[in-house]
Amino acid sequence: MAFLRSVIHALWMFVTVVPWGIYMVTASVWSNGTQMWWLAVRWLRWVVGDVGLAILGIEIRVTGYENLPLGAKSPAILLVKHQSTLETFLIPTLMPHPLAYVFKRELIYVPFFGWAMGRMDMIHIDRSLRAQAFNRVVEQGKRLLAQGVWIIIFPEGTRIPRGQKGQYKHGGTRLAVETGAPVVPIAVTSGKVWPRKAFVKRPGVVDVSIGRPIPSQGRDPDELMREVEGWIESEMRRLDPDAYPG
Length: 246
Prior knowledge:
Blueprint lengths: L1 H26 L5 H16 L1 H7 L1 E6 L13 E4 L5 H9 L4 E6 L8 H6 L4 E3 L4 H17 L3 E4 L17 H9 L3 E6 L15 E7 L10 H19 L7
Parallel strand pairs: 1-7, 2-5, 2-6, 3-4, 3-5
Antiparallel strand pairs: 6-7
Helix pairs in contact: 1-2, 1-3, 2-3, 2-4, 6-7, 7-8
């Protein structure tokens, strides 16, 4: 049954992403960044909203909404645990602000999905140009944060198998210190139902826990990232103890 659900969901994603991608590229001619964002969220809600998750039998349980900064222009940098593709699609549907992902430039060449991302006001970088890439992140990050757009980063850099911890890179906290924006740590137990690099998704409950904002002003990026890492990994063990025996 899980395999059949996964096939149906994959077909649902495919038949919706093609017209959505075409529409996004076309709409970018007359739409501004905010309008483009909410058009993107509409498709993400098809994929991981009521219809998409009902197909897979997945339920989302969110705690910590009260920790999100208030105000239309209040800045935030979201640092999110990364176990699967699910949180990449899910987090935007949960947030009250437009988000800007920091992602590798190669993704904009992926048909339809990447073309749509390339037309949005996000931060795509050439990772071969490290110093210049970070300067670009800071420059664009300051501009977007001033507009009320939150930045989302996966500090582990790639999807990490359930029950494991990747290397937390300090790019997100460096950006926070440079811009003065607080960081919001987020733990997600997506690996329980949507394993890394697995086609078959399993029914179940995914917990999303939003931590309290951590001020960045006057902080050392490495020390700040250690605090973020400590909170996320401790919260992961609380939310999914079966994945962390001992």
